[in-house]
């Protein structure tokens, strides 16, 4: 039996103007932008729709992106598209949980606002770094960095694209060692911290306190957690997984392989950009992948899936 998965992108997918056409065309989408503005105390529309300096700051990016993804999901659901399971890359996991019914949309938005602040402020500027490693197998990368203290894998995105994270000197040393060991390219990323590294364990512990104040609901459909690339059907696991997720590797490639192995054959990326569709081309070219990043994409997806 075929399965449809809603996918949600992580930090880096944001762009000025995202969601504006949904705000203009859908009352349900408009409502969530307005509610988010009220809940967070700043103009979410201006942040998402207009050119500005804040959108790329982690403390603002995370709330903006999750608000946009959930506004789009409302419009997608209104159009009659339904998922059997959801998944989100890092930050996107919060949108995936809310879309699966596990938490209220506004709670997800409030949480990622706090998460963004914690992730930005836990490690002093310059002390942590991240680096993308191109065209090298994950196992080889793990072998090379095993002897370098202070660096770990942050993201298993897809074959040929793995991201490492940790203390800045260790990441720089690892990048040079990986290049020498045969990596086609290593690219230091323009990020404000060593995301998904053990350096962020304190952020995860603080986040756990915030999660303790949020009411979780019974899931309508399962979601996939980044921490172990497994299906979650019971939100009693959710708080612990989200607290760990901040400092654990994002197992995106393994998550997609798990879903395909369990019968998923249609993947709908909801949010700005096509990052996850690009990853899927390298993971498995045989599945159907659709993107919903603009209002016009909704009708195209309905037509393609009906």
Count of structural domains: 2
- The pLDDT mean sits at 97
CATH fold-type name of the largest domain: Malonyl-Coenzyme A Acyl Carrier Protein, domain 2
User: How many beta-strand runs?
Assistant: 10
Percent range for β-strand residues: 15-25%
What is Rg? 18 Å
Any low-confidence stretches, pLDDT <50, length ≥5? Answer: none
In order across it, which strands form the biggest sheet? 8-7-2-1-9-10
**What is the highest CATH level, the class of the largest domain?**
Alpha Beta
Shape: globular
Order of H and E elements: EHHHHEHHEHEEHEHEEHHEHEH
Distance between the termini: 16 Å
Q: What is the assigned CATH homologous superfamily of the largest domain?
A: Malonyl-Coenzyme A Acyl Carrier Protein, domain 2
- Tally the helices: 13
| Helix-strand category | alpha/beta
How are the secondary structure elements laid out?
Elements: E1 3-8, H1 20-25, H2 27-40, H3 44-49, H4 58-78, E2 85-88, H5 92-99, H6 105-121, E3 128-134, H7 138-145, E4 151-158, E5 161-167, H8 168-180, E6 185-188, H9 201-211, E7 223-225, E8 230-232, H10 238-245, H11 252-261, E9 264-270, H12 275-283, E10 288-292, H13 295-305
Parallel strand pairs: 1-2, 1-9, 2-7, 9-10
Antiparallel strand pairs: 3-5, 3-6, 4-5, 7-8
Give your account of this protein's structure.
It contains 13 helices and ten strands. It has about 300 residues and is α/β, with parallel strands linked by helices. The chain has two domains: about 230 residues, Malonyl-Coenzyme A Acyl Carrier Protein, domain 2 (3-Layer(aba) Sandwich); about 60 residues, Alpha-Beta Plaits. A six-stranded mixed beta sheet has the order 8-7-2-1-9-10, with helices on both faces. A four-stranded antiparallel beta sheet has the order 4-5-3-6. The longest helix has 21 residues. About 50% of the residues are buried. The mean pLDDT is about 95.
């Amino acid at each position: 039996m075929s399965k449809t998965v809603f996918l949600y992108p992580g930090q880096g997918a944001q762009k000025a103007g995202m969601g504006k056409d949904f705000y203009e065309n859908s009352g349900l989408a408009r409502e969530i932008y307005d509610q988010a503005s009220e809940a967070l105390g700043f103009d979410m529309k201006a942040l998402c729709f207009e050119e500005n300096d804040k959108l790329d700051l982690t403390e603002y990016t995370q709330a903006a992106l999750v608000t946009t993804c959930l506004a789009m999901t409302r419009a997608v659901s209104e159009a009659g598209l339904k998922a059997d399971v959801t998944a989100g890359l890092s930050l996107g996991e919060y949108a995936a949980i809310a879309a699966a019914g596990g938490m209220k949309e506004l709670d997800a938005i409030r949480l990622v606002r706090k998460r963004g602040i914690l992730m930005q402020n836990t490690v002093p500027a310059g002390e942590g770094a991240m680096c993308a490693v191109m065209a090298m197998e994950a196992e080889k990368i793990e072998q090379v960095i095993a002897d370098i203290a202070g660096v770990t894998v942050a993201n298993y995105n897809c074959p040929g694209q793995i991201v490492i994270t940790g203390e800045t000197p260790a990441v720089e040393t690892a990048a040079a060692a990986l290049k020498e060991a045969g990596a086609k390219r290593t690219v230091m990323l323009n990020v404000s911290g060593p995301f998904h590294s053990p350096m962020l364990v304190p952020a995860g512990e603080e986040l756990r306190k915030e999660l303790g104040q949020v009411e979780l609901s019974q899931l309508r459909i399962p979601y996939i957690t980044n921490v172990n690339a497994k299906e979650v059907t019971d939100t009693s696991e959710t708080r612990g997984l989200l607290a760990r997720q901040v400092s654990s590797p994002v197992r995106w490639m393994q998550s997609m392989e798990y879903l395909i192995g369990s019968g998923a054959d249609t993947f709908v990326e909801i949010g700005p950009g096509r990052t996850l569709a690009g990853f899927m081309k390298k993971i498995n070219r045989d599945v159907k992948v659709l993107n919903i990043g603009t209002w016009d994409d909704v009708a195209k997806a309905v037509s393609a899936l009906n």
